[in-house]
Amino acid sequence: MAGRLEGKVALITGGASGQGRVAAMRFAAEGAAGRPQRCAGEGGVQTMHMVQENGGEAYFVQGDVPAEQRARHG
Q: Cα–Cα distances in Å, from 36 out to 66, 69?
């Protein structure tokens, strides 16, 4: 999948559902490797699989972005 974001990486918070999932799919369609992130793991894993099944590159990272320490250190 080639596009405007080829070779870029996107960290997508809230990627487990809704607008975050749509963003993950769109970024992948434009060539970015996506990392959907959310506290609840099931939806993030589902989004990761959806991106991969459509030819994109995605990895799921479980995290809590509002918690500064976790956001900085994974």
A: 15, 19
